[in-house]
Amino acid sequence: MPASLEDRRANLRAASTLIHGHGPVALPEELARVSRWCESESVDMDAYGEGEALQAFEARVAGLLGCERARFFPSGTMAQVIALRIWSDRAGLPMVGMHPTCHLELHEEHAYRHLHGLNSVLVGPTDRPMLARDLAAVDARLSSLVVELPTRENGGQLPSWEELVELSAAARDRDIRLHLDGARLWEAQVSYGRPFPEICSLFDSVYVSFYKGIGALAGAMLAGPADFVDDAIVWQRRHGGVLYSMQTHWASAAMRLDDQLARIPIYRERAIDLARRLAAIDGIEVIPDPPHVNMFHVILAIGPDEAEITRDRVAEDTGLWIFSRPRPEDDGRAMRFELYVGEAALAIPADEIAGAFARLMRLAKPAGG
Amino acid sequence: MPASLEDRRANLRAASTLIHGHGPVALPEELARVSRWCESESVDMDAYGEGEALQAFEARVAGLLGCERARFFPSGTMAQVIALRIWSDRAGLPMVGMHPTCHLELHEEHAYRHLHGLNSVLVGPTDRPMLARDLAAVDARLSSLVVELPTRENGGQLPSWEELVELSAAARDRDIRLHLDGARLWEAQVSYGRPFPEICSLFDSVYVSFYKGIGALAGAMLAGPADFVDDAIVWQRRHGGVLYSMQTHWASAAMRLDDQLARIPIYRERAIDLARRLAAIDGIEVIPDPPHVNMFHVILAIGPDEAEITRDRVAEDTGLWIFSRPRPEDDGRAMRFELYVGEAALAIPADEIAGAFARLMRLAKPAGG
Lengths: 369, 369
What we know:
2 copies of one chain form a homodimer.
Chain A: H1 2-15, E1 17-18, H2 27-40, H3 52-65, E2 69-73, H4 76-91, E3 95-98, H5 103-106, H6 111-114, E4 119-122, H7 132-136, E5 144-148, H8 161-173, E6 177-182, H9 185-192, H10 196-200, E7 205-209, E8 220-224, H11 226-238, H12 247-254, H13 257-279, E9 284-287, E10 295-300, H14 304-318, E11 320-321, E12 327-329, E13 334-340, H15 343-346, H16 350-363
Parallel strand pairs in A: 1-11, 3-4, 3-5, 5-6, 6-7
Antiparallel strand pairs in A: 2-8, 7-8, 9-10, 10-13, 12-13
Helix pairs in contact in A: 4-11, 9-13, 13-16, 14-16
């Protein structure tokens, strides 16, 4: 029975060691740490987004990014669509540009259209980041353009620095406001090896996330000019995003931001090493090769069902849970999943992880063979 | 210097005992309690609004209200405007009705208009709850009507049960969906002395809040028919209201809901007693008299500035902080504030609170005299 397989799988997963991300959040430990941090920093409770300690954290992130002001948001979905609405209202143009794999296009129920009355032009192909020549191919007048660094859905690819500068200049030539989807800007910055303000200076507004690479409970920030952030706060109220208190969320971000930023270069090094080891295994491909940041896609030359059954066997044998949610490729003859290298993978010897993948490919019947 | 007065006032307030609400939230204790509850109940972490324990809490609240389904929202602002959008989309009518003191009209930057393209008709006078005859005076075709129980901005007034039944019937006669702004439904239910499902059966959708009377960190629920809640979840995604995790918020609500509901009759009894004592003091009026729920407005026959200076002196003398944020009345010759009777007032003998108010009125120079 499928329900029974699902249950057994969930139990097996819960008993195994994940290699993706930072591993499961231990809420009691996290809340205890938030508590201690708030006490040791004498943090005042925020009320409806107001509070000295919260505003100090916002100023700290604005300073880090080289932006005039920043505002904490409950989610990136809320922050980004608001940025586009503001730029569109100011330009009097409802048309925005975005990559076809943009979070706003794929994962937000088209809020930009249904909630804010905006329209979009999809810019560039799915399998690589957006470039200046992709924008040149767009005839429509755009108020703004979203650029995600790195592009998550194609394996965390970054344009080269020169390509990014060229895209920014092309947008500015056409008076298009550039919004940075920096869900993984922390990761991108390490790869560019340039200060955050230098990267952000190519953009008019910037969103960063606190729960992915940073590993906080939830939350995001939207940064830009002061008058832009003022407008964003009005829209945040309209979205119902100014809560009675978000202290647990922003404190969880504030208390670990510096430490976590220092870890990302280590993740990246491990990601490049792991990708090299995996790509050496027969039937495994990584994209991009080598990875641009501490995440990449893994393509296995086996069908998704076979892959999941074999993944379960590998978990039973090795105790490692090497992927979740495979996406079919090539009409089901292959599958793809995302690997974000964080604390989870770092805690396991690289040869053990590579060994588990080698075992998987030995056990699996290749879909074509 | 005003800054210095402001600082001294903030320090004095922090050193005094508040009588409004439940008193300040002690975050470390709250987080420790959330932790213990999650451990003792073996609560699984929710991810993007999904999780067995979260869904169980939603089902529990739906059952309590007698609704088919309920969904946890980060805020009431988000939940309510979404309810109106759904009813308006279904009716193909952008026009909604609401009381002139409705939260959506006063405190949400007109999200219903700017974000959802809805228009409103204001129904009834500000100083009493909306009645069937107010709706009868509206010619416009409405998709839906918001009814707040109790009406917060006029001192927590409730229509009588018969008046409420009549309003509901009048709305249904005109095929208008009735949405219950139940920010303080927990409080209203105690006054009506009728089961929640009987009250909610007069409405098509219901919002309840967890941080006011219930005292949780933040959060709300939107309840109604299953297909309505399905639609609401899509809009919640569009609002950016489905967070990576809201466990701290909903757990803070779930762990205290039953205990807190049992406290509200005690608050109400104390509110009625306190209001009677205050109304007996020269220069003090309470609205409504007697209170309908465990909150009411207090009007003092002194100007707001004089009242604040005297309130500070009373705080120095008695250690009690008897009001914040007075609103001017009658061209500044009187002022009004809201008193929500909860744990804070319950912890102080009623004659001590009444004594502090009597002292205030003795010290103050009446604005007219």
